[in-house]
């Protein structure tokens, strides 16, 4: 439970994955609201409960906003309406099929409206360097102008805080290790089965990050 939560000035876009949960704990002292999005991904049903659980554990309000139009109209294998999740390393060319077009742009726009509505001045997002090769809306070249646009477009000059933009997932895991986060209470697998598959790109990246950080991974994997 965070003391003086009413003095916090930020909200966080929190998925329930390793990166956003680490960010949630690292900056919990400044976060008043956690926002998740149900956009029809294959793994939404698995990751969203973790987002809610961690926010509740910290005494931070959490809401989930439905974005059903994304699964209905957008094309991506990450969505329930798309094809199978490709296997392989996260930086392989075939993983580009998991891109959800302009996902972060849409989510950040909604978060900006929520922040202004709540009188909050900061949006936290956990994009990181490992995302850059595949996801254009995770790069500094997107985050920086989006920060300026949101600040200019909100009456209270809401700003984006994206402290992981230039660091690796392994470095994020090391932050989580210092914070004592149990990553078994997070979800990465894009396949969205009963347990995390252990072989898709996000699972492989997750395992490598925890190994790099020297974390004893207690996550249950299919493989």
Descriptive overview:
- The protein is 38% helix and 11% strand.
- By secondary structure, the protein is α/β, with parallel strands linked by helices.
- It has a five-stranded parallel β-sheet with strand order 3-2-1-4-5, with helices on both faces.
- α1 packs across α6.
- The longest helix has 16 residues.
- The N and C termini lie far apart (35 Å).
- The model has no long low-confidence stretch (mean pLDDT 94).
Topology, element by element:
Elements: E1 10-13, H1 18-26, E2 31-38, H2 44-58, E3 61-66, H3 68-73, H4 103-118, E4 122-124, H5 140-153, E5 159-161, H6 169-179, H7 201-213
Parallel strand pairs: 1-2, 1-4, 2-3, 4-5
Helix pairs in contact: 1-6, 6-7
Give a short summary of the structure.
The chain is of the alpha/beta class.
H/E element sequence: EHEHEHHEHEHH
Largest sheet: 5 strands, parallel
Taken from the alpha-carbon principal axes, the silhouette is globular
- Can you count the helices? 7
Any key phrases for this structure?
223 residues; alpha/beta; 5-stranded parallel β-sheet; 11% strand; 7 helices
């Amino acid at each position: 439970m965070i003391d003086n939560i009413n003095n916090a000035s930020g909200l966080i876009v929190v998925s329930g994955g390793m990166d956003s949960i680490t960010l949630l704990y690292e900056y919990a002292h400044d976060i008043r609201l956690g926002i998740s999005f149900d956009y029809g991904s294959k793994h939404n049903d698995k990751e969203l409960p973790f987002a809610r659980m961690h926010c509740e554990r910290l005494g931070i309000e959490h809401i989930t906003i439905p974005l059903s139009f994304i699964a209905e109209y957008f094309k991506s294998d990450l969505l329930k309406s798309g094809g199978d999740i490709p296997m392989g390393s996260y930086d392989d060319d075939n993983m580009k099929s998991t891109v959800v077009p302009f996902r972060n742009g849409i989510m950040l726009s909604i978060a900006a409206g929520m922040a202004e509505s709540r009188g909050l001045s900061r949006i936290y997002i956990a994009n990181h360097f490992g995302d850059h090769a595949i996801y254009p809306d995770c790069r500094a070249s997107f985050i920086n102008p989006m920060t300026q646009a949101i600040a200019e477009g909100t009456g209270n000059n809401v700003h984006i805080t994206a402290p992981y933009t230039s660091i690796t997932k392994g470095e994020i895991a090391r932050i989580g290790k210092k914070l004592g986060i149990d990553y078994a209470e997070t979800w990465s697998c894009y396949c969205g089965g009963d347990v995390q598959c252990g072989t898709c790109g996000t699972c492989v990246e997750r395992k490598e990050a925890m190994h790099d950080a020297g974390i004893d991974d207690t996550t249950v994997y299919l493989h």
